[in-house]
Write a structure and sequence with these properties.
By secondary structure, this protein is of the alpha/beta class. 36% of the residues lie in helices and 21% in strands. Strand 1 and strand 2 form a beta hairpin. One of its GO terms (cellular component) is cytoplasm. Its EC number is 3.6.1.-. Keywords: Cytoplasm, GTP-binding, Hydrolase, Metal-binding, Nucleotide-binding, Ribosome biogenesis, RNA-binding, rRNA-binding, Zinc.
Length: 360
Amino acid sequence: MNIQNYGWNSRLEEQWSNVDHTDHVPGRIIADFGQKVRMITASGEIWGACSGRLRSELINRGTGLAVGDWIQVQLLPNEDKGIIHGVLPRQTCISRQSAGVSTVEEQIIAANVDILFLVSALNDDYNVRRMERYLIMAWNSGVSPVILLSKSDLCENVKLKVAEMELAAPGVPVHAVSASNDLGKSLLDAYIKPGVTLALVGSSGCGKSTIVNWLSGSNIQHTQGVREDDSRGRHTTTHRELFLLPQGGVMVDTPGMRELRLYEDEGGLALAFADIECIGKRCRFADCKHEGEVGCAIEESIRTGELDQKRVLNYRKTQKELAFQARKEARSHARVTGSKSKERERSQVRNKWKKDIEID
């Protein structure tokens, strides 16, 4: 098995030479099933799990393993298994806020991805405002986003939809494709090269698994139809998995997202709404909140039609959401830090008490 096909390169080789890898071999996580992962090494595919020490380190750092991670693996003799002892530094990390939790927790979708296909079907799934949120996630992760408008055979005004999406995503490639009618495949093949890792994200039923099968030329992913009344699909993909493509390169398919809760902002908001940020610099006052103040360039741009009001409203909403989450995370961190400080104080008192007893 040649792990170069899965993206191993000279940069990773240099990282590998700088870690203690005695009795370990490099590998990559290609599927995540919760407690266990599937990984690829030069010996082939095997099952793996973290060592106790690595598991404790990951818990302390508030993170975990992810599909796409490059890892240090101890192969177990005569077994189709291995123990993971370390993770090489990630070049990119796609994540969102975990759903259904009261605190701000990161859920990693995939690691070490080069190009992220943001998929939206040209049926009732089509939503420009949601795509703006996907773009923030992409820019925050450090990957290069590409927007795919799938199921173009179901749309009568494809050019209009592409133009609309291009306005909402300045500088980001937008491609309309149809796997069922084999339209636009050559456009996507241009991104698939040896050593390149791609990933697909989108809502349930948008056609991600169908695209994986289409690009691979085989049915490597199970697919299902969507409900005709609302164009929604079920979670065909139930776990994250990485597939080797015949053109070279690998692709990560992910479960559909019913909602995208952004984890934190590392400049993605400014990049996704670069046009608004640029116009905002023309406001009369530096601290303008763009909500009706005198001399607000953004309000003026809405009046003249230079900016779409719905886009500006989404910008404001997302800006407030990220600010709220940052405050919530800061409060959570303060509580944890305070608890640790109190525990240290109690520990110091206990140690002093023990010493006093010993002296007596």
